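Researcher: Sequence recovery benchmark, item below. Answer with residues only.
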């Protein structure tokens, strides 16, 4: 993934002319100091750009209009240093399309007990001004994140960072293109959905290309390019003996390289950020893409199998959010269960396509039979994933809304060897426990496909859902099924009453 070096979050401070020019100069100085501190913070991955204090409806409208048009601006941090009458914000907020964070802070951390006077009170009244602004944003039913605390506190910075990463993922979706090679897997429900509504709601487009369009590009790949990529495979992975040069299945490795090169070319030429395919539509292909998909995901492309465009888009968004963080994000599926009462576990995997960004150690490049698809045995990377905190996330189309469902999990080291399972895999314990976590997922209509993340948290996805204006459902350490079912019912009522 590219870094966030060109991304900007604008720091906008509200005030008014009531207090005089001297006070406004102090407001500007304080705002510049805070913005500069945030911008220079080594843990905030984007540029924080100070903007002049807005004091009139015209100035507010102009800066919101400018933010909308600015390609590099991914969101706005708003702060009311003094008191900014909120009716001035109506027209600006009406047109604002970028994510909004309301920073409820003040320049001074402590009250200067022995020196405080009315001049100090009039200048440092964020406790007053932010509530005026907050009312208007709530009155206009605008989603935003509210961060409370002193602007140098670690917790405040952490909250801002989470929101910034979510905003980067949201920005990446705007105008994005995803390609489906073939259609959805036949008769499958949860992986399909309303692509028109998704483009309206999320900002990305999903369109289908026949597999023949891809095969034409694959067939044009040169032998020299294949030679170079096969050499890269040999350097990067532990290559199965049967795939080495001169061995009986080396041609299968070359075919995998040819598929990868063709896919890369197709995606690059079409400016696609992700894709899906299905084993039911492979006309003209020698083998199902396995190794190619894994390596493309590792480079930041979104992917999901069987025509699941929603998960492909989510994988891309989560990879973008996690740019620069240790660990990885991958297309995933709850494949099978270990129902040992003393150690219940989920085995997550897929036929072929798990991203090596989550691998614990150097992957092995192998070839094995695949019982579906009716094609030649596909090449794939085989590995275990590491232990630690993680999440599984899924976007589902509930008919009248999209739902983003997140389950917090704890990945564990393999409890036994899996010598006959030739796929990449990960073991985890769902929170709050196996029975509750799995039941809650099913009650919420969660898909069997997810994006598995080692480096994002539920907080990132909650902020992301707020930006998208969609429902967010969390299954975590404190989930209680009685309460959870009530929350789902209340949510149904809410969205029925807010169809417009």
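Model:
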């Amino acid at each position: 993934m590219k870094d966030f070096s060109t991304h900007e979050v604008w720091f906008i401070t509200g005030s008014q002319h009531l207090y005089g020019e001297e006070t406004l100069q102090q407001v500007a100085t304080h705002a510049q100091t805070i913005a500069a501190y945030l911008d220079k913070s080594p843990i905030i991955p984007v540029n924080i750009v100070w903007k002049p204090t807005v004091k009139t409806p015209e100035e507010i409208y102009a800066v919101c209009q400018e933010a909308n048009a600015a390609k590099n601006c991914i969101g706005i941090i708003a702060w009311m240093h003094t008191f900014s009458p909120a009716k001035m914000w109506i027209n600006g907020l009406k047109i604002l399309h970028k994510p909004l964070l309301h920073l409820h802070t003040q320049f001074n951390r402590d009250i200067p007990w022995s020196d405080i006077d009315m001049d100090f009170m009039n200048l440092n009244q964020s406790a007053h001004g932010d509530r005026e602004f907050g009312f208007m944003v709530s009155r206009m039913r605008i989603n935003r994140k509210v961060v409370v605390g002193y602007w140098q506190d670690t917790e405040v910075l952490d909250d801002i960072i989470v929101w910034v990463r979510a905003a980067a993922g949201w920005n990446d979706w705007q105008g994005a293109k995803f390609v489906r090679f073939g259609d959805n897997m036949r008769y499958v429900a949860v992986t399909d959905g309303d692509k028109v509504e998704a483009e309206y709601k999320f900002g990305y487009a999903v369109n289908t290309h026949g597999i023949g369009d891809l095969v034409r590009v694959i067939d044009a790949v040169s032998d020299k390019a294949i030679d170079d990529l096969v050499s890269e495979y040999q350097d990067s992975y532990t290559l199965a003996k049967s795939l080495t040069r001169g061995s009986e299945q080396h041609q299968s490795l070359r075919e995998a390289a040819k598929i990868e090169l063709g896919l890369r070319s197709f995606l690059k030429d079409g400016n696609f950020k992700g894709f899906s395919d299905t084993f039911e539509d492979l006309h003209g292909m020698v083998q199902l893409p396995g190794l190619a998909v894994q390596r493309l995901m590792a480079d930041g492309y979104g992917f999901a199998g069987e025509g699941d465009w929603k998960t492909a888009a989510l994988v891309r968004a989560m990879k973008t959010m996690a740019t620069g963080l240790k660990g990885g994000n991958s297309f995933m599926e709850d494949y099978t269960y270990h129902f040992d009462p003393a150690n219940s576990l989920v085995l997550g995997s897929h036929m072929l396509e798990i991203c090596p960004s989550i691998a614990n150690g150097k992957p092995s490049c192998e070839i094995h039979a695949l019982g579906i698809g009716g094609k030649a045995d596909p090449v794939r990377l085989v590995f275990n994933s590491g232990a630690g905190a993680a999440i599984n996330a899924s976007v589902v189309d509930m008919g009248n809304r999209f739902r983003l469902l997140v389950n917090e999990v704890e990945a564990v080291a393999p409890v036994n060897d899996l010598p006959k399972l030739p796929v990449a895999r990960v073991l985890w314990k769902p929170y709050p426990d196996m029975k509750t976590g799995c039941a809650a997922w099913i009650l919420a209509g969660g898909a069997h496909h997810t994006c598995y993340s080692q480096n994002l948290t539920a907080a990132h996805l909650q902020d992301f859902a707020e930006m998208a204006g969609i429902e967010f459902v969390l299954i975590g350490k404190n989930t209680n099924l009685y309460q959870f079912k009530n929350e789902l019912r209340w949510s149904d009522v809410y969205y029925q009453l807010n169809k417009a």
